[in-house]
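Troubleshooting log. The previous structure file for this entry was overwritten by mistake, so regenerating from the original sequence record. Sequence copied from the archived sheet and checked twice against the printout by T.R.
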Amino acid sequence: MELNKESVILRDSYGRAIRDLRISITDRCNFRCFYCMPKEAMEWQPKSEILSYEEIITLAEVFVSLGITKLRVTGGEPMLRRDLESLIERLAKIDGIEDLAMTTNAHFLRGRAEGLKNAGLQRLTVSLDSLTKERFTLLTGRNELDRVIDGIDAALEAGLDPVKVNSVVIRGINDDQVVSFARFAREKGVQVRFIEFMPLDNGKVWRREMVVPGDELRRLIDEVYPLERVVSGNLSETARRWRFADGAPGEVGFINSVTQPFCGHCSRIRLTADGMIRTCLFSTVEHNIKALLRSGASRDQLVEFIAATIEKKEERHHINDTDFVQPLRTMSCIGG
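Regenerated output below.
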């Protein structure tokens, strides 16, 4: 951790500045996406083990005092937590926050998107892996596509900007819908981001041949809707972004975590719903800040723990190594 006159900056041992904190607020979800959560009953964390809103705010304030400027609320499905708007409002009021976002499946957005916007939520990412009812039901275990699309419309109507749509692409399952998603981006004016299938699934079904490289998807779209590269200048941005050459609204992006890792510019850290810091999505170890917090630790002790944990951030993930070990916890437990 280094101290400047203007700000405190958390840096890991590789010199990367940590600016982005992803806060999972629940491990529960009303969908059952096979790559994230099993169809059978989950063993949910007891409510007593889940961080309270007061604890989340306390930790968020400490993280922000150390240079975090971007917060993302995730789950599970974060909208399953009661009074989510009150948490968003309190997070938005933390001095130093430049960007406050949330990831959701959009099922509960109609009727609540405007309230979330008024509470201080700036932008939204919706998880959506298919645009056909049959495939959507197969992937999520729920026949709720219409409601999700309506939730995206509600977010747009509320003025959340941008609205991003994340689609995990799996060969042989939904890779034939990439052009349809590009059309959806154009029609709705949203940013669709295609994510390479990663080994975080509960059933351990991930195989390399199921990964569809982002460059392959981009070529498929470019044949129908010619694309132009968007250069943002933000090295820590995970998606390679493209706009439509004909000036149509919307964008497509490609998060190529497997075929083109971007670990060298990673600025992210994660806080799980049960109070564990994860230094990488694929970490095999976690750091229990909840125990420290609940023991009555001082702010200085929390700062020292966070700084020491950041020092342990991995140089990169090891998906492409022969000795790769998949994390024990799946995406619904880790947080998006």
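The longest strand covers residues 163-169. Archived copy saved in two places this time.
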